[in-house]
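New here. Your pick:
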Amino acid sequence: MRPSDPAAPAFVQLAAHPLRWKLLAELAASDYRVRELVERVGQPQNLVSYHLRLLRGGGLVTAHRSSFDARDSYYHLDLERCAHALAHAGGALHPALGFAPAPPPLSPRPERRPAVLFTCTGNSARSPIAEALLRLRTDGHVEVASAGSHPKPRIHSDAVQVLREQHGIDISGQRPRHLDTLPGRRFDYVISLCDKVREVRPGFGDRSRLVHWSIPDPTAAVGPGPVGRPAFVRTAAEIDTRIRYLLPLLTLTPQELRP
């Protein structure tokens, strides 16, 4: 390559390394802690941490402290940013390859609706928001439920209001439910949105695919009503983005999914 030739786009340079690609692939499926990534990619922790630091520096991966055990951090792949980075990389190679990225729509299998369970501790904000948004985005093609390990007495009023104002969904008549009310139910995906429920009660059915979305609790925002509501708006927006990237996976068979 001549010295004057342009360098490969930053995304290509980051993703081309075999270990970084493995880390991206793992984080594309779920949020993980460092020790979990070490186990999944089979590499020493210092090496995994080094490459995670490079991915964070490139803006592809973020990290934040566990809301349950602050000694741990969860790493998250920003799929939206990856989609735009891939589009930019394609456009840098040839103008015809630059496109506006969009996750493909759900194409339901006719034989059986996929089933998804969202979990958090109180089942009063994050998991009912996720339940409502997935039901909206799939128009009844997915069986969806939510539950909590220690459910609150009622759905948080700001969750009700944000869903009504931002998405036209009314969950005012919904009540939090306990995970123990779902024995025998089969779910293809069990998605935890709360660090505590994942770390205290990680499993739910042997045949379910377990996924973690480490999303801060919007109810921890200081002040009720207008003071705390922006946290619920941000939470609903993040969950909605993650759901858009979940949709194509819901039509895959277990054999088509990576172990």
Summary: The radius of gyration is 19 Å. The beta strands are 32-33, 61-65, 73-77, 115-120, 143-148, 189-192, 209-212. The chain has a mean pLDDT of 87.
